[in-house]
Amino acid sequence: xxxxxxxxxxxxxxxxxxxxxxxxxxxxxxxxxxxxxxxxxxxxxxxxxxxxxxxxxxxxxxxxxxxxxxxxxxxxxxxxxxxxxxxxxxxxxxxxxxxxxxxxxxxxxxxxxxxxxxxxxxxxxxxxxxxxxxxxxxxxxxxxxxxxxxxxxxxxxxxxxxxxxxxxxxxxxxxxxxxxxxxxxxxxxxxxxxxxxxxxxxxxxxxxxxxxxxxxxxxxxxxxxxxxxxxxxxxxxxxxxxxxxxxxxxxxxxxxxxxxxxxxxxxxxxxxxxxxxxxxxxxxxxxxxxxxxxxxxxxxxxxxxxxxxxxxxxxxxxxxxxxxxxxxxxxxxxxxxxxxxxxx
Length: 344
What we know:
This protein is an alpha+beta fold and 344 residues long. The N terminus is likely disordered. It starts with a strand and ends in a 7-residue tail after the last helix. The relative contact order is 0.18. The protein has an 8-stranded mixed sheet with strand order 2-3-4-14-9-16-8-7. A 4-stranded antiparallel sheet has the order 1-13-10-15, with no helix packed on it. A two-stranded antiparallel sheet has the order 5-6.
């Protein structure tokens, strides 16, 4: 009931009358309704989360036991936002200022998988995205604000900071760290923390996707805010998967951006109208758990730059599925190395 049908929202290119009348967009209004419903139902179900955001439960991390997390979220493959109120998993100082002071002269890739990739000094990029002005008349800075520093392996580029990040203990054992249970996988998968930094003017992640090999994902919001769009795995037939892995969607990224899903986009991707979208905002000090096979994409919102770290992990319940998928991944990679195709 908390999922929003794309067929009911943002189907016109014109200014939405609801937004104009209420001074708040429909997603934010739905969140307020969710919060009110949670408050009124609190006495009826002690075991129920007391707050939802866009249909996603929000809990204080110190209150969540491993048994509760497994029962509610791992076993059911359900997303949740965890408020790391003590900053036990991601220290509060890990933001633009710290990265600039310590690694300003490091050259980093922007839009790393795109054809328009650009390598820049980290200080130059952070100076541009940390600016709160809309435009300073500097075309170079304006270009940087529209670019994305993403999927940067932290243990390779920022090892000291990577060592300060940890998965919540309630997640349980990460099978990727156990070489006996997962004898073969890239070393960076065993300590998977990737850095993402972007300005709100950036369009966000370049495509809707689900993570490879049935891994779970956790996004640690270090600074700023991010808006996530999520789809349940059952909605895969409506999301136009492409490539030999089927982990990417062919749908234009702007369908999940600030402009919403227009009638023009639905004209090209009509099945999208049958998919159920969940939209939730994640703020500094919060962790979004994205279960295996859930489709997701995200973009920065507000006025400040978004800084986040993404982790991937595998629990005991998902170990067999991971091993099977990784075996197929290795076979496909071998074909690519011999010129028989590409991995998409």
